[in-house]
Amino acid sequence: MPTSAPPRNRFERRRAETRQALVRAARQILAETGDTSASIQAIAERADVGFGSFYNHFASKTELFDAAVVDALEEFGRTFDERLHGVDDPAELVAAGFRLSARMADSHPELMQVLRHRGLGHLYSDRGLAPRALRDLERGVAAGRFSSVEPTVALSALGGTLLSLVELRFARPDLDGDEAASNLAEMVLRMLGVPPEDARNIARRPLPDLD
């Protein structure tokens, strides 16, 4: 019978906590301004760790901010996995991705601001939502649910549309975010070859709560 791994010692736990504090501080900075010019001292103070601790974890600010974006993308992806567990239809997964993202501008504002400011540079990342979307596109094409298109090219269209939707949610908070997301989801499904009536119905199915 396999045994669980022994708990990490106090040093390892503190080291991990310090690293996560730095990543969390960098995420906050990215969400607030998207600016990476903050000094290491300012980042360390925000993280409430010593200045010297920074170089125990990161070689540069660039490395830290990249880690912060990856951390945000992974949280984004895990949120989708949790909320859409059990959904098998690739078309419904694609549509739900747009619609949940619009709602996350309100429920997860810091996360979505990081995506807004830095998402384009990570459109083809192997972490976060991109590999999940590529998987769903490949499954949809293989099953005949989507037109026979190159999945990576389709991912470009989906990623660009999603980033535009996120920008719209923050730039125009007066608009009905759910309706805008449903309309965009319907357009994307039709672009992928889903019949119009089917696309419209899928883009308006009930969504799980994000709370």
From TrEMBL:
Pfam families per record: TetR_C_40, TetR_N
Top-level taxon: Bacteria
GO molecular function: DNA-binding transcription factor activity; transcription cis-regulatory region binding
Keyword terms of this UniProt record: DNA-binding
SUPFAM superfamilies per record: Homeodomain-like, Tetracyclin repressor-like, C-terminal domain
UniProt DNA-binding residue ranges: 39-58
InterPro entries: Homeodomain-like_sf (IPR009057), HTH-type_TetR-like_transc_reg (IPR050109), HTH_TetR (IPR001647), Tet_transcr_reg_TetR-rel_C_sf (IPR036271), TetR_C_40 (IPR049513)
Protein name as it appears in the record: TetR family transcriptional regulator
Native organism: Streptomyces montanus
Upper classification of the organism: Bacteria, Bacillati, Actinomycetota, Actinomycetes, Kitasatosporales
